[in-house]
Amino acid sequence: MTYIELKKVFFRQKMLPLFLALFTVLLVATGFMFANKKVHIAVDGTTIMISTLHSKPQDVLVQAGIHLDPKDEYRLSTKKLTDGSTISVYRAVPVTVTYQGKTEVIVTGKPTVGELAESLGMNMENTKLVPEGQNKIEADMFIQAITLTQKEVERDVVERFTVMRQPDSTLEKGVERVIEEGQDGVKTIVARIHYADGVEVSAEQLSEKIKEPPKPQVIHVGTRDVVDTSRGSMRFSRVMAMEASAYLPTDGSVEGITATGVKARRGIVAVDPDVIPLGTRVYVQGYGLATAADVGGAIVGNRIDLCMENDSEAWRFGRRSVKVYILD
């Protein structure tokens, strides 16, 4: 046997099994690659299942006889087409989109509002979508894309003055007197203003600094609850400013009988019972002690009619503003 013949025998005995093993591995790998896969297709409101050897979703759709229009889209549930994958087909539908002052009708096969917005080049960091981005696209849907912006501003605002009320025993109860007028101040604030499509919607204050401090208003509040009369000091519950007039005992009736049945005389006054109840004891500035025991058609609200002894006293008194003390 020659050397060449010996070499051929050696090759058949040693290398042939190795080639056969490699061929077997390649055959198995190819079989896995092109093995039958069961794939689900969700389209037009229904789901179908198909067995396929294809590895590309578009080829599977062609195999299933599903036609895609130019703007129709699909999504694969897995990264690659494998056994059990689902291909979801989204038919293109018209939607109305409003963005940056423009409104247009767009035909889209995007599955969600957010994907459509991104495909239109919207900056999602400063855009608010109505409805929100995760909502599914529906035919004739109205989508509003609101541009959100913000800026910091510095403003001078009024700082309102406060009111300080201080008791004063020299003033009668119910009397208030302004001792010092209040004055508003000014403060500078830094705020962040939030805008939606250029319209201010909210503001948040970042800092503030007093520029001119406000000056408080000081009011003295009377606490003195006694009034000096010809019979000494008397306590009162409140004091009222009223318009007083004078009348004679016979002005109401010839007999001089009041609405409460008592005889009209000095010390009897007519009042509005809704303001001063009948029977109330009062002290009238410039007149003296009296009892509310009569009424009059013209005596309404803060008006009081004082009974005088004669014409001359009534004429001297005339009509004037008086303080009326409601006695305890």
What attributes does this structure have?
328 residues; Ubiquitin-like (UB roll); 6-stranded mixed β-sheet; 20 strands
Tell me what the structure shows.
With 328 residues, this protein is an alpha+beta fold. It folds into five domains: 3-32; 37-90; 93-149, Phosphatidylinositol 3-kinase Catalytic Subunit, Chain A, domain 1 (Ubiquitin-like (UB roll), Roll), CATH 3.10.20.90; 151-221, Single Sheet (Resuscitation-promoting factor rpfb fold), CATH 2.20.230.10; 225-327, Beta Barrel (Barwin-like endoglucanases), CATH 2.40.40.10. Helix content is 16%, strand content 48%. It is elongated, with a radius of gyration of 50 Å. Mean pLDDT is 89; it is low at 23-33.
Question: How are the SSEs ordered, and which strands pair?
Answer:
Blueprint: H1 3-14, H2 16-33, E1 37-43, E2 46-52, H3 57-63, E3 73-76, E4 86-90, E5 93-99, E6 102-108, H4 113-119, E7 127-130, E8 141-159, E9 163-172, E10 176-180, E11 185-196, E12 199-212, E13 217-224, E14 226-229, E15 232-247, E16 268-270, E17 281-284, E18 288-294, E19 303-307, H5 311-317, E20 320-327
Parallel strand pairs: 1-4, 5-8, 9-13, 15-19, 16-18
Antiparallel strand pairs: 1-2, 3-4, 5-6, 7-8, 8-11, 10-13, 11-12, 14-15, 15-20, 16-19, 17-18, 17-20
